[in-house]
Design the sequence.
């Protein structure tokens, strides 16, 4: 190991553990998930859209009470920190996502359990959700590596990871059993050294001046990435 790398590692301090916080953006607010406060709005957002659960480890749910119980378990669990997603245009919670597989000593953390209802998908709020979580991970908590993993068959998730600047690192074959099915898992990441450039792309695309009065983008996300 070179002296420069060795010195950098000697100076490394473990990242901070995430705690419940509210993250404010231009298009969306992320707030700590609460079954009591959010179950009704989330139920309304996913009602009739069982497809949103296809690649998740839980769901679909037959009734609001079942969803509420699942949200309560997520809220109280210690393995992941969940955020409810509240776009500012509607003011209603329409999805959630979590920080999980938290390895503070090594500075590694993952965005996962991402449930975007149809009204959230392909919106400014959806993109800003990932931006706010990444900014929190790197700038506030001091992580070195932000991971994105998904079922290798989940093409929308893979396209989203690549759009947001995550680097594909490979596929872990027969990695998990999910809902009785074997899952190959595609792995992606952003490193702390890459984040400043990724951050500029996010902020340029999310800027109010990049959208017309009807909310349509003037430039694509990829055009800012160069």
Sequence:
């Amino acid at each position: 190991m070179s002296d420069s790398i060795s010195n950098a590692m000697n100076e490394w301090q473990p990242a901070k553990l995430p705690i419940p916080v509210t993250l404010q953006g231009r298009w969306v607010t992320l707030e700590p998930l609460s079954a009591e406060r959010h179950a009704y709005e989330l139920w309304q957002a996913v009602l009739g859209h069982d497809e949103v659960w296809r690649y998740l480890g839980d769901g679909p749910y037959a009734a609001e009470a079942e969803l509420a119980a699942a949200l309560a378990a997520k809220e109280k669990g210690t393995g992941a920190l969940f955020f409810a997603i509240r776009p500012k245009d509607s003011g209603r919670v329409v999805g959630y996502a979590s920080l999980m597989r938290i390895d503070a000593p090594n500075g590694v953390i993952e965005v996962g359990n991402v449930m975007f209802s149809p009204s959230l998908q392909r919106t400014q709020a959806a993109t800003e959700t990932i931006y706010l979580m990444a900014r929190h991970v790197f700038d506030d908590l001091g992580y070195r590596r932000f991971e994105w993993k998904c079922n290798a068959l989940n093409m929308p998730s893979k396209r989203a990871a690549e759009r947001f600047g995550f680097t594909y690192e490979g596929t872990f074959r027969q990695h998990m059993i999910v809902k009785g099915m074997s899952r190959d898992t595609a792995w992606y990441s952003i490193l702390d050294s890459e984040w400043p450039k990724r951050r500029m792309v996010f902020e340029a695309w999310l800027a109010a001046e990049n959208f017309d009065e009807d909310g349509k983008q003037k430039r694509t996300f990829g055009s800012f990435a160069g």
User: Anything to note?
Assistant: The radius of gyration is 18 Å. Residues 124-140 form the longest helix (17 residues). The chain has one domain: 10-220. Helices lie at 3-10, 35-46, 64-76, 124-140, 155-163, 195-206, 221-225.
